[in-house]
Structure to design on (143 residues):
């Protein structure tokens, strides 16, 4: 079962990130411009929790199935870092910047957050790509 989860979870995670970036966030700004920031903030709060959970589960699976190759572990931990830094560290700073506090502007913090989300997408995409490789541990059925 672990080899199948090793293939499935990174693909689902990548799909979640792609859907948020290309569907959910643009739709919120198109349909509710005045409330979009609040809606998108809620989406990213939920995504952060899901990403942290997936990062920990994928890291454990990678450590169990490929203890001699730690690339998958580092990709998952990199995505976890991007989540923690991009949401949990920057979100309070963005709230403060909107109130005129702090050294960086809201726009600068938003750009950093966007960069971390994009980097997380690349890391998770690489993790999914690697997990889908034939050497990932699952052989095609012969039927």
């Amino acid at each position: 079962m672990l080899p199948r989860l090793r293939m499935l979870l990174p693909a689902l995670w990548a799909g979640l990130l792609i859907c948020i970036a290309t569907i959910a966030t643009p739709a919120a700004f198109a349909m509710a411009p005045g409330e979009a920031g609040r809606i998108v903030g809620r989406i990213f709060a939920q995504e952060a929790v899901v990403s942290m959970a997936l990062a920990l589960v994928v890291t454990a699976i990678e450590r169990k199935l490929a203890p001699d190759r730690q690339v998958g572990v580092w990709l998952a931990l990199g995505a976890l870092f991007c989540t923690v830094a991009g949401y949990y560290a920057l979100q309070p700073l963005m709230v403060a910047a909107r109130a005129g506090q702090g050294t960086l502007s809201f726009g600068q913090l938003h750009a950093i957050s966007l960069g971390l989300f994009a980097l997380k997408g690349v890391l998770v995409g690489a993790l999914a790509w690697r997990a889908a490789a034939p050497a990932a541990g699952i052989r095609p059925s012969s039927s």
Summary: The chain has a mean pLDDT of 92. The CA atoms of residues 40 and 68 lie 40 Å apart.
